[in-house]
Amino acid sequence: MSLRYPLFLLLAVLIPALIYLRYARRRKPALRFSDSRPLSRLPMSWAVLAQPLLPALYGLGVLCLVVALARPQKGLEESRVRTEAVDIVLLVDVSTSMRAEDLSSALNRMNRLDAAKEVIARFVKDRPSDRIGMVAFAAMPYTVSPLTLDHGWLLQQMERLKTGMIEDGTAIGDALASAVNRLRDSEAKTKLVILLTDGMNNRGTLSPENAAQAAKAMDIKVYTVGAGTTGIVRIPVTDPFGGRQYVRQRSEIDEGTLKEIARITDARYFRAKNLEQLKEVYDEIDEMEKTEISIDQFTRFEEKFMPWILVGITLLGLEKLLSLTRLGRLP
After folding, report:
1. Is the pTM of the predicted complex or chain greater than 0.85?
2. In sequence order, what are the residues at sequence separation of 6 or more whose Cβ sits closer than 8 angstroms to the Cβ of residue 292?
């Protein structure tokens, strides 16, 4: 609580003088006694006992009005947050090669797709102010989520992703074009696509380079991530009896194409051969493309003089009413 005009409180020193002026001129006694000591032994009525209440009510009422005149206020600290948000489309490869388990952690065996989902989930949670969408792809792109601030819903949709849900293949060009299309109407200051794949472009009608040029024309950066090891990898498959077997398959990443996509769009290419490196890649992208947040702090004052006025008027009114009773007629 603070006072806008604290100097007005100095008027309170005048209250005793006002009380004196109001109650000094009392009616003189109607009867004179040479000795009042016998009267002191008489019982005192309630009116006599309550008589000091009148000047007290008057003094308190005036004091409340003086406090109201000083304008008590309550300061409310507030802040206004302004953000320069980023619109991001996450482009995730779900081809069957993403079943390779070379991105497993020491405590948890997982395939490339599950590792990517774990890292992406953390990335999404760290960017609450950004609109984020997701496109999965194999032989063709599939929109998992449009741009949204409902990141909980986005992560629920991501959990449904699995390898084999789309015809097998790796259509990087078509997938990138689909992601760029999702950002076509974006008015964000910064627009990003983060492309994660473990293979070579071997399907689709649009070349990755042409899709990258389209992204550049729309001022969209495309960060590319090559996930997994190259060479012979072990991929789990289900045998005719429902058992789990591993087959050996060659894994190749078209790093040249991924680097070219990043170069065309003024972004970067990253290589992640294990889970820890994959986490570092998304952490680095998160740091490079931070959402700009500015906070304006200010104090809003709420006026608190009205209760003092109401109390003061109430006390003065009560004093006036009581002065019209027997209390006001006593000497």
Report:
1. no
2. 83, 84
